[in-house]
Amino acid sequence: MKQIMLFLAGVSLLLLPGCWDQSSLRDARLIYGVAFDQAPQGKVKTTIVIRNMPSGDRKNPSNEVHSVIGNTARQTRDLLDSNISEKLETYKVRALLFGKEVAKKGIYPHLDVFYRDPRASLNSRIAVVDGEASQVFYLRRVGDTLIAEHVDEVLESEEDAGILPKTNVQSICSLLLEPGQDFLIPLLRKTESEEVAAVGTALFHGQKWTGEFNRKESVLYLMLTNEIEKKAQLTIKIHPQHGENPTSYITIDMLKPRLKREVKISPSGGVDVIFSGTVYAKVVEFPENNLTDSDRLEQINHELSRALTLEVKNMLDKMQQANCDALSIGRHLAAFHPEFWKKQDWEKDYAKVRFHPRIKVKILETGITY
Amino acid sequence: MRSIFRGRKKRKSEPTTKVGDTTTRVSSSLQENIDNINEKLCRSQDLVFRSIEFNGKKGVLVFIEPLTDQNQVLKAIIQPLLKVREGKLEEVIIANYLRQTESFDEIIEHLVRGDSILLFSRSEQAFIVGTEATEKRNLTEPDNEAVVRGPHDGLVENIKVNLYNIRHRIQNPNLTVKFFRVGAETRSKLAMLYIRNLAHPDLVKEVEKRINAIRTDTIMSPGFVTEFMEDCPASPFPQVLYTERPDRVVSNLMEGRIVMLGEGDPTAVVVPVTLFAFYQTPDDYHSRWMIGSFVRFVRLMSFLIAFLLPSLYIAIVEFHPEVLPISLIYSLKSSIDTIPFPAIIEALLMELTIELIREAGIRLPSRVGQTIGIVGGLVIGDAVVRAGLVSNTMLIVVAITAISSFVVPSHELSTAIRVMRFPLMVAAFSFGFFGIVVGLIIIFMHLVKLESFGTPYLAPFAPLRVKDLKDTFIRLPIWKLNQRPHDPHPQRMKQEEPSRGWKKDEDS
Questions:
Q1: B135 belongs to a structural domain
Q2: Which among A12, A30, A55 is the top mutation candidate for probing chain B, defined by the most B β-carbons within 10 Å of its own β-carbon?
Q3: In angstroms, rounded to a whole number, what is the distance separating the alpha carbons of residues B86 and A1?
Q4: In terms of residue numbers, what domain contains B240?
Q5: Is the pLDDT of residue B19 over 50?
Q6: pLDDT value for A58
Q7: Which residues of B are less than 8 Å from A87 in CB distance?
Q8: What is the CATH number of domain A230-370?
């Protein structure tokens, strides 16, 4: 008798939990994209894109876009959940967009909910929209592609091309919270022809937007941080004397450039950062032609090096103006020169850092010419 | 020496009792003997009495008609007796087996085996002549253990033929055969085979002890014997290996294992075995070793698939959809969105349907069997999805699971796996991945504890013996397998000396 009771108690213990932590895929509404915008009176406007997949043979997915205004990101999600059938799930968010206003005020408050939820997708791509982020989602469709997927794919292809940094919820987490380290987020813009284009990157300091790079500067930044995985394309004006003419330009593929960075503290207390190294390149377009001559090639190498170094210098200046330490100089100082770092007021002293790019370009391949 | 059978409860074995202990003697009166035989055999009407005369004495030939070889009776007894009217009976009768006896019980015992009895008036001696009929079918390849390449004969229902088949393959005086009579009423013949200088003596003793301990009226098949003998009757996993292939029997004998054959059943019982023995087939050894290894590996993977796939699917759909990649999650969602049941009901529905189709397929005569294929495969498979009762993906999961469970060469293990996945599915539905992990832990605890005649069931994996792994997950070339597997504790480990020495000579 006692054994039977024990057995029954065991079985009921197994069954009593009754799937309490179940979260069935059947009852889930999957959010594909989320956008945060500034609303009046310090409120936040959250826009979500839900992907619907009709069952049966005709598989044409459709998007639903919803917006709501609330005090915090979490509250807006709860408000949205009450409007929408089934349960909203964020574990497959692919694109997370911030409007310009929100980005200027600080993005951490809206990301907090993602970091606290164990099911939240940490690999969703982040981007900033120049303008209102919800406007991008209300495009609903670009060509034949649904909007959130389009945004995700645009970002992905630009990452692969070595133009935008790989940014997702997880990768910016530590950068957001750590002093002496800043980050860049891809910048999107809704064009006049109702499309979405990746126009460059937004520079962040702390958690606020402080400046922006165009696509070329963004490539140069990735070159300095050795983040280009395969190759990246760069068009440089090497013959300004030709004026606005195709022959004044050269386009090269930088083949997995790897540069050396050196941080030095001068006796006077200034910080010198030296970038040195050789970028191996492949010429993909050179309207002027005549690359067969080795002397001429040498000359172009030289001109290219000079032009590239100049462009890098300009990019670095812009970064310093935005007070964005995306190259993690402060982090380096804190790690290797802690005494020096303690004396620094990085908010101001970052602008005093002297950058010395010394980059050589060497053309390895000239392409097929006869 | 440390006993390999430690920690088992000792059970006293007693010899089986014999039928009818009252030993009577053959009477000198012929009529009395005939009456007695009739009485003992319940006046069975297939009993034949034929009058004969020899040396001027009246006699009678007794046999049970269906059990005896009529030709043999005619040629060995009747014809010589009619031709040679007198002399010594031993010189007249032409038979392999001829014995004189005075014991009446012995007469009865031989009669029911199919021998003929000669009785003469005014004589207390009876002659037993071996005229046993052997009806046997052809040595065809067993349907459930067919191989692509290799011997295509199989064991049959006749123990003598089976012994011939095995002895023919192992022409070695050390092959020992011991007969047992089990079942108080059926008196079924059971043969135990082992190689004397390979099988561990403790193992032989243990098996003998367990056979002798059987006290039952009926033994129908080796399945009965197994259930009396196995270590853990509460386990779903088979602890002996059934096979109908003589080559498999032989290879197991040569590994130092013990084989039991029963009269009237083509199944040989091999003890002791490990889990991995159920995944070996003769085909592995007849193909090249790389291909053999690949197939073996695929088969072992099928074990995991058959075991885990439905529960993993349930856990993912009901608890952890976030582990799915984005492109998969939408197609999965669209296929399950309209299904009215939770995944577990869906899975149980389909699994039970497949079990039904399988069972019906076995029971139905083969001509009607095709109908089941059409009804089961097309109608249920397609219609159930169209009706929106089961999702497409669940159908795929169930189908893959079913196919993987049929890959197991042993029917017993395949059934065990099919049954074991149901508790896992329930665990997955109640607790997700956590439930699966707990379920697997319990199953592995059981497997590690399980023993088959003193051999750990998961050997050589637990306890680990790296040398024996050569023939488990993969099959290395035969010349690498120069030691016998360790699990049956054979008396001699070495089974192969370097046979490819010529290679070195050639190279140098």
A1: no
A2: A55
A3: 78
A4: 143-273
A5: no
A6: 63
A7: none
A8: 3.30.300.210
